[in-house]
From TrEMBL:
GO MF term (any one): ATP binding
Top-rank lineage group of the source organism: Bacteria
Organism (species): Sulfitobacter mediterraneus
Protein family: Belongs to the ABC transporter superfamily.
Record InterPro entries: AAA+_ATPase (IPR003593), ABC_transporter-like_ATP-bd (IPR003439), ABC_transpr_FbpC (IPR015853), ABC_transpr_MalK/UgpC-like (IPR047641), Mo/tungstate-bd_C_term_dom (IPR008995), NA-bd_OB-fold (IPR012340), P-loop_NTPase (IPR027417), Transp-assoc_OB_typ2 (IPR013611)
Protein name from the UniProt record: ABC transporter ATP-binding protein
Pfam families: ABC_tran (PF00005), TOBE_2 (PF08402)
Keywords carried by this UniProt record: ATP-binding, Cell membrane, Membrane, Nucleotide-binding, Transport
Gene Ontology CC terms, in alphabetical order: ATP-binding cassette (ABC) transporter complex, substrate-binding subunit-containing
Keyword Endoplasmic reticulum part of the UniProt annotation: no
Positions of the ABC transporter domain: 4-241
The keyword Cell membrane belongs to this UniProt entry's keyword annotation: yes
């Protein structure tokens, strides 16, 4: 296990990049502590797989350094970084049994047979696959194949980091929650440094202690799942995390404060800085129906089980609210109230208010 440090990291697939737009990864400085569970979260093309490949040694960055426990490994090949990687598609040998698949990484490194048997039994118990140890891998279901692929990454106890590159992509949706829970349990038991790459917010938020949200080759926020939900530092984070995502409303600033569609808005605290396109951000969970507030008209109501998502139009602006209990019908006039301590100003996407200031 290792602390991983990324220092002044940038990468371009072009031989002579000229501007920031030519870089798949813009400047990244990041520390991952030894034994932590981390997720790289973002849409396709945001740079998360590029970053994972640089950490693993499959790519050499255009600029910057990678350090494991303070040791510079930037120019070391993958086999000298002491890492394990689990990919989207299970990497196992179909002609081998489950036992032989789990033993292979250890046998390949000359580990004593007694130690191999002990470690395989331990990992098999963690994965709950003891009954299939002598089954050929070709006979396994896709989710069990991916379990064995995970086991091959975990069977070595000397790895610096275990990396998962969208490991649940090919798994049936009704089985994903089982593997997510199993992976979280495995981390709590083995305490290895783990990095999980995904575009799925549920996978990232249920697995990781710290989530790194990426957009267009940049890190826009690092935080716990609670921090990302409750106080997005960028409108992209608010929109990408949450279902439905954060309301991002065009706003106007003046000496009297901030308005949306001409109506004054109370923010969480003091506005910082100046300049840039102003937007008010508030999650639908903190918008409620009230007797007074922003006047609007119900455009749509979606019943999603435990609550309803109401969409109302305030002037030309659509605002969503999560409502428990009865909801007005489509076309009815309503007033919407924003919870002040969850209402923030953003400028050019970045947060521009201070808590309680």
């Amino acid at each position: 296990m290792a602390k991983i440090t990324l220092s002044n990291l940038r990468h371009s697939y072009m031989p002579n990049p000229k501007g920031s737009e030519d870089f798949a990864l813009k400047e990244i400085d990041l520390d991952w502590q030894d034994g932590g569970a981390y997720a790289l979260l973002g849409p396709s093309g945001c740079g998360k797989s590029t970053l994972l490949n640089i950490i693993s040694g499959l790519l050499v960055p255009s600029e910057g350094r990678i350090l494991f426990d303070g040791k510079d490994v930037t120019d070391l090949p993958p086999d000298q970084r002491n890492i394990a990687q689990v990919f989207q598609f299970p990497v196992i040998y179909d002609t081998m049994t489950v036992r032989e698949n789990l033993a292979f990484p250890l046998r390949n490194r000359g580990v004593a047979e007694g130690k191999i048997a002990e470690r395989v039994a331990e990992i098999a118990a963690m994965l709950e696959v003891e009954e299939m140890l002598d089954t050929r891998a070709s006979h396994l279901s896709p989710d069990n194949k991916q379990k064995i692929s995970m086991g091959r990454g975990l069977v070595r106890d000397d790895v610096n980091v275990v990396m998962f590159d969208e490991p649940l992509t090919v798994i049936d949706p009704h089985l994903k929650w089982k593997l997510r829970s199993k992976l979280k349990e495995l981390h709590q038991r083995v305490r290895a440094t783990m990095i999980y790459v995904t575009h799925d917010q549920t996978e990232a938020l249920t697995f990781a202690d710290q989530v790194v949200v990426m957009q267009d080759g940049e890190i826009v926020q690092i935080g716990t799942p609670v921090e990302l939900f409750e106080r997005p530092q960028h409108t992209f984070v608010g929109h990408f995390i949450g279902s439905p995502g954060m309301n991002v409303l065009p706003a106007d600033e003046g000496q009297g404060g901030v308005t949306v569609e001409g109506h004054p808005i109370t923010l969480e605290g003091k506005i910082t800085g100046n300049g840039g396109a102003a937007q008010v951000g508030i999650r639908p969970e903190f918008v409620s129906l009230a007797k007074t507030g922003l006047p609007g008209r119900v455009r749509k109501v979606s019943d999603i089980g435990r609550h309803s998502v109401l969409e109302a139009m305030v002037g030309e602006t659509s605002i969503k609210a999560v409502i428990d209990g009865p909801v007005p019908a489509q076309g009815e006039a309503v007033h919407l109230a924003f919870r002040a301590d969850q209402t923030r100003l953003y400028r050019d996407g970045w947060i521009a208010t201070e808590v309680g200031a």
